[in-house]
Design a protein that fits this description.
By secondary structure, the chain is mainly α. It has five helices and two strands, in the order ααβααβα. It has a domain of about 100 residues. The protein has a two-stranded antiparallel sheet. This is DUF1289 domain-containing protein.
Length: about 160
């Protein structure tokens, strides 16, 4: 039986929970998840990671579509863009946009297309819109469930 790889921290070094945000503007984890991350088991970390990946993929899909995941993966490797190969390819696409949205002239050369409603907008602007929507979705999820206990501890989060 193969052991799944360890879950890497989603932290990107832009934590806003230290200034009072309930959801980090950088990694989109809840404040209690940031605080308790090192105490979580790998299974617990996978649960958080899966939620974040699902939310991010949903936000990317609202504006773009991966049409060739193999080409996208090749471009990520060629451009040396770090990404999680276990995540949805739309998460890979966001990693690509974070690394160089301003340098992509032809999305099809990278295996994706922009929804027709957004084709007149620069990829940098779309990347920012996706990130804002991702934060809003994570915040809405937190607001809906923040009165529940932390999924992994006995204490209540408030």
């Amino acid at each position: 039986m193969q052991v799944p790889p360890r879950v890497k921290t989603p932290c990107i070094g832009v934590c806003s929970t230290g200034i009072g945000d309930s959801v980090c503007r950088g990694c989109k984890r809840f404040a209690h998840e940031v605080i308790n991350w090192n105490g979580y088991t790998e299974d617990q970390k996978r649960i958080v990671d899966a939620r974040l990946a699902q939310f991010l993929a949903q936000c990317v899909q609202n504006r773009m579509r991966v049409v060739d995941a193999t080409l996208l993966a090749w471009q990520l490797q060629t451009q040396q863009v770090r990404h999680n190969p276990d995540h949805d390819p739309h998460c890979w696409l966001f990693a690509l946009l974070k690394a160089g949205a301003g340098q992509i002239e032809e999305p099809s050369a990278f295996g994706f297309e922009v929804d027709i409603r957004f084709r007149d907008e620069p990829l940098l602007a779309l990347r920012e819109q996706i990130d804002q929507e991702y934060f809003a979705l994570s915040s809405a999820h937190y607001e809906r469930y923040h009165l529940l206990p932390d999924l992994f501890t006995e204490e209540r989060v408030s």
